Amino acid sequence: MALLIDTPVWPWRGRRWSHLVSDTDYDELHDFAQQQLDIPRRAFQGDHYDVPEELYARAVAAGAEPVGSRELLQRLLAAGLRIRKSARSAG
Predict the structure, then answer these.
(1) Mean pLDDT in residue range 33-44
(2) Phi, psi of 54 (to 5 degrees)
């Protein structure tokens, strides 16, 4: 089980955000987001959850591994769990 979170540097609506992913499967990702961070399933973005800056430390304390955004993407791709942007918008 590896849950990964990048640094909250992504700006949106006046806040900074991180990406939370799993490099194993989506089930563990959904469980972690809901049980540890109180982020609802409807917030799932196809292959990740956006995590507001104020929940970053809580995610790490609960077991998410802090990584750089490049490493996060590489591990997501290697796991075969990356959903390409065009596939997300086609749904």
Answers:
(1) 96
(2) -70, -10
